[in-house]
Amino acid sequence: xxxxxxxxxxxxxxxxxxxxxxxxxxxxxxxxxxxxxxxxxxxxxxxxxxxxxxxxxxxxxxxxxxxxxxxxxxxxxxxxxxxxxxxxxxxxxxxxxxxxxxxxxxxxxxxxxxxxxxxxxxxxxxxxxxxxxxxxxxxxxxxxxxxxxxxxxxxxxxxxxxxxxxxxxxxxxxxxxxxxxxxxxxxxxxxxxxxxxxxxxxxxxxxxxxxxxxxxxxxxxxxxxxxxxxxxxxxxxxxxxxxxxxxxxxxxxxxxxxxxxxxxxxxxxxxxxxxxxxxxxxxxxxxxxxxxxxxxxxxxxxxxxxxxxxxxx
Amino acid sequence: xxxxxxxxxxxxxxxxxxxxxxxxxxxxxxxxxxxxxxxxxxxxxxxxxxxxxxxxxxxxxxxxxxxxxxxxxxxxxxxxxxxxxxxxxxxxxxxxxx
Lengths: 313, 98
What we know:
Shape of chain B: elongated
Order of helices and strands of chain A: HHHHHHHHHEEEHHHHEE
Oligomer: heterodimer
Number of helices of chain B: 0
Largest interface: A-B, 65 and 53 residues
Largest sheet of chain A: 3 strands, mixed
Largest sheet of chain B: 2 strands, antiparallel
């Protein structure tokens, strides 16, 4: 009986170890949190991708994704406004000064602009806010502003966000994304020692991959809901009912030939292809009682061919 | 554009992401639907009276109309705008007539 108990105990421990080891490498099991922007950047370092995927990497560097919490400067400024006008103005936010900002507060922005902030301590949230304040301060020196831009640009939506962290939406069906794996269209080995495995993501060419950030409307899962993009909602509830069936990637990456330099309104080629535009004009004289009024009648016909309403906001 | 509702209540527009929740009105171009905009532009003319009759003196019989479709991220056309389409048309008024 004792032998049986011992065997059973070993079997249980072996099973426990197997389960723990199997889960050790996934996001679900992630325990260590980054304590600085530099540490978070290291956790999500995608520079190793450049060696083999140089052209794609260079495309991505041109995109706003590569500086997602700085943007064109407007994003960094809006982070500051969100703290100064938003959070500090809310009676129950717990934020009385910029130093009070925690990860949970900054997730208002970071849910999309830096989802990996969920794997960082409050110190990182404070560091981001501090740099956003420096960048937005009209009294700050150019040198201080440049340093803030550099720091804010270290963390972004890079290869490891779309091809790993956010590559699986339905985790109970498809499993949790693993830290040693990159997700794309193939299964097999991957040459990068940091990511030696390659697996198929079921959503890599589906709109929902982009929809995770590009918005259904209010983010109701937050204690204090925010709203930025509403594009994915427009795609689902306006474009699809009109018979549309193309995916985000079809226009923003493939047809536009932008690849990983994913752009929107700033790319005039994409803008031009988004709207059929026809103008007709003729002159005539309107008779206002006994007075002739010469005028031009201009008719503009537009059909938005994008997979969502234009503009968004 | 979708005009965001402030804190998902009332009739006020919200501006920052921290206060936007919901949509009050949407003036965007909807996908795959024809939208027509019409404009009447007066020609330069002088209106006088002679012997009790209204006289219209057309100062220029030709007009060049340029229509631009612009994306304005800030909602104004003086900063950081992107021109997607630009069409120019010549419009004329007949000379003479009854």
